[in-house]
Amino acid sequence: MKSLRRWVALALCLAMCCALLPQMSLLAHAETSGSCGADGDNLTWTLDGGVLMITGSGAMQDYDAFDEDNRAPWYDSRESITAVALPSGLLSIGAAAFYDCPNLRSVDVPESVELIARFSFCSCSSLTSIELPAELLFLDEYAFSGCISLTAVALPAKLVELGHSAFADCTGLQTVSFPDGLRGIDGEVFSGCTGLTAVTLPAELGSVAQGMFRGCTGLTEVTFPASLSLIGKEAFAGCVGLTGVSFPETLMVIRDSAFEGCTGLSEVSFPASLEELDSKAFFGCTGLQSVTIREGLEELGQQAFSGCTGLTVINLPASLKTIERSILSGCTALTAINVAAGNTNYCSDNGVLYDSAKTVLIQYPAAKTDSSYVIPASVTQIGNEACFGSAALTSVTLPEGLQSVGWLAFFGCPAMSSVTIPASVTAIQGMAFGYYGSEESDAAKVEGFTIYGAAKSEAQTYAKMNGFRFVFENPFDDVLESDYFYNAVMWALDLEITAGVDATHFGPHQDCTREQIVTFLWKSQGSPKTEEQNNSFTDVKPGQYYYKAVIWALENKITAGIGNQLFGVGYSCTREQAVTFLWKAAGAPEPQTTGNQFSDVDPSAYYYKPVLWAAENGITAGIGGGMFGVGQTCTRAQIITFLYKTFCAEN
After folding, report:
1. Strand ordering across the sheet containing 253-254
2. What's the average model confidence in pLDDT over 25-39?
3. Above 60 in pLDDT, residue 632?
4. Residue range 73-102: average pLDDT?
5. Alpha-carbon gap, residue 333 to 353, rounded angstroms
6. Least trusted range by pLDDT, from 205-209, 533-537, 573-577
7. CATH topology classification for 31-196
8. Contact in structure between 148 and 126 (CB atoms under 8 Å)
9. Strands of 232-385, DSSP E
10. Cβ-proximal residues to 291 (8 Å cutoff; 6+ apart), any chain
């Protein structure tokens, strides 16, 4: 029994040793000293008990944390490093020298250091403070990025350049002090520093770089220098804690999305020096209620104030020369847009923004309470998102002569159930009519939305593409909505079966000729192709409008003509001929009933089955008095109605 226990103990011991072998091997091969100088042995290092000590003088070698063959020699031991001691003669701290040392808490940087290179202390998450030397000239990109425990930074007076994202995502950083002479600050330096609350920028700074404070959600106050001329793209985007900003009188340009998503901003006043306000500069600033734009501004970028749901009124100066699209779309509280007198490019009419000649409707204030709006006759273009979110609008009158309607022009107008679009419109962009929602991505169709317009128009095309009901603007003076054939004529127009006898007349009571009815029938079937060489009719010639239709009817045994190799061009079509054509085109189905209700329809006649079939399918009820009307001429209105009742599924 004792022997067995000894063997078990021995086996457990061997297993533990085997488990430790990889770690022992790593420790055995981990370096604890060596050289790290840019010039070879000018700097050496030792790692002892968590303290990394570097001795010598001059510049440190640059490393690359993302290249396994060029990482710092102590990289594999980085988790054990808690402190770094640097020599007084050190001139630079190398790139990625202390990258991702998660337990590094303190560093003594000597006064001799002039450069802290890229990624030097990036992701040192336990580093709580750093005293930057007075001789420091350059602090490179990502030098302290991700140092989440760092709470305060004082930048030295001699600093010349602060690199891209140098302190990005230092979420614990609360205060930063700048030297007055610092001018070179790259983009995104403090982006994501959510703990920053107040910043006073350097006195000689000329521009706030791209994304410099993007996502600094705790930032409530920014003091701009008197020398500032430009605020870069996304410089303060997402700084939701900002409640107000005061710009210096030297500011000339505010770039794209500079204050996008600053939902806490309630008031903005621009200096007279401002010339350019770029795209989405204040996009989504939902708390913004008041905007003052002074004379001097020349350019207003697209969607500059789009989505500012608290904005009620905006006054535009006479100096304004360029307004890009959708500057105020989604401003659901906006009641008026006013343009100063003397502006040669733009004007406002009852709070609605137009170009100076009133040919372009640029923006209709979404919160106007009018239920209807008549767009001036001079307007030829409705801009993108021009009436976006106008919830009170129930109807809009578009002018004759209007040529184009922009993207999302009437999106978000749920009370508008219909629109009449003039035939002059040749372009309608996506979701211009009949859709609602808070934005394009959650769009829904207005139930039962109806578009009225002319046949073969852009309005009809838009209705079909978007699945909206389309009602023809009746072009015919001789077709009334009360006529029994009204729906049939509109259906025929929709399918381009007929366009009438002229532009304003359908000719409902005119006799329908044989070639006309066969052409109507052919078009109702989608104008199928034919062989065309099978023409046995001497009165049907190539090039005539009915040529292909007659050949198709001949090939499909719908007609054999009137004899003597004649189709019967110019002959009026009788009622019995018409229903026979329809019956054969439908496949010559057997009537389901044998009872003949018409006294003038002989059971031996060629049209007997077609008439019975037509009667039982509601295509015709005859002419009254138990008569079908054999031998009577079929009018254009009658034949179009026959076709409609035969082939229109909605009938």
Report:
1. 207-208, 230-231, 253-254, 276-277, 299-300, 322-323
2. 73
3. yes
4. 96
5. 16
6. 533-537
7. 3.80.10
8. no
9. 244-246, 253-254, 267-269, 276-277, 290-292, 299-300, 313-316, 322-323, 336-339, 346-349, 352-355, 360-363, 372-374, 381-382
10. 267, 268, 270, 282, 305, 311, 314, 315
Separation of alpha carbons 12 and 17, rounded Å: 9
What digits encode the pLDDT tens for the residues 103-122? 999 898 999 999 999 999 99
Q: Is-contact 395 372, C-beta < 8 A?
A: yes
Can you tell me the distance from the alpha carbon of 266 to that of 288, in angstroms, rounded to the nearest whole number? 4
Give the chain's end-to-end CA distance (angstroms, integer): 99
d(CA 453, CA 457): 7
The answer, yes or no, to whether residue 318 has pLDDT greater than 90, is: yes
Indicate whether 14 pLDDT > 50.
no
Please name the amino acid found at residue 391: A
> pLDDT per residue over 556-592, tens digit each?
889 888 889 999 999 999 999 999 999 998 899 999 8
pLDDT digit string, tens, across residues 417-430: 999 999 999 999 99
Q: Measured between alpha carbons, how far is residue 600 from residues 47, 136, 562, 614, 626 in Å?
A: 117, 113, 22, 15, 8
Give yes or no on whether 31-196 and 206-343 have one common fold.
yes
pLDDT digits (tens, 9 = 90+) for 236-247: 999 999 998 999
Q: Which amino acid is located at 629 in the chain?
A: G
* Three-point CA angle 632, 634, 635, nearest 5°: 130
Q: What are phi and psi of 428, to 5 degrees?
A: -130, 115
Three-state DSSP string of 485-496:
CHHHHHHHHHCC
Cβ neighbourhood burial of 355 (10 Å; 0-12, 13-18, 19+): middle
Domain limits, the chain = 31-196, 206-343, 395-472, 498-647
CA–CA dist 72, 45 (Å, integer) = 11
Please state which CATH number belongs to domain 206-343.
Answer: 3.80.10.10
Token pair belonging to 284: 């989504």
Q: Are 227 and 249 in contact (CB under 8 A)?
A: no
CB 139 within 8 A of CB 161: yes
Assess contact for 417 and 448: CB atoms under 8 A. yes
Alpha-carbon radius of gyration of the chain: 41
Facing residues of 208 across strands? 231
pLDDT of 144 strictly over 60: yes
Residues in the chain: 651
**CA quadruple 293, 296, 300, 304: dihedral sign:** negative
498: confidence class by pLDDT, cuts 50, 70, 90: confident
Closest CA to 488 of 162, 479, 188: 479
Sequence-separated (6 or more) residues with CB below 8 Å from residue 235:
208, 209, 210, 211, 212, 213, 214, 255, 258, 259
* Residue 650: per-residue pLDDT: 65
Nearest to 178 by CA among 161, 197, 164, 195: 161
CA distance linking residue 237 with residue 225, whole number of Å: 19
CB atoms within 10 A of CB 603: 9
Contacts of 351 (CB under 8 A, 6+ apart): 335, 336, 337, 338, 365, 368
Using the predicted structure, report yes or no on whether residue 24 has a pLDDT greater than 60.
no
With a CB cutoff of 8 Å and minimum separation 6, the contacts of 335 are 312, 313, 351, 365, 367, 368
CA distances, 19 to each of 6, 23, 62, 197, 614 (Å): 20, 8, 36, 51, 93
CA distance 467 to 473: 18
- Smallest Cα–Cα separation from 27: which of 43, 47, 8? 47
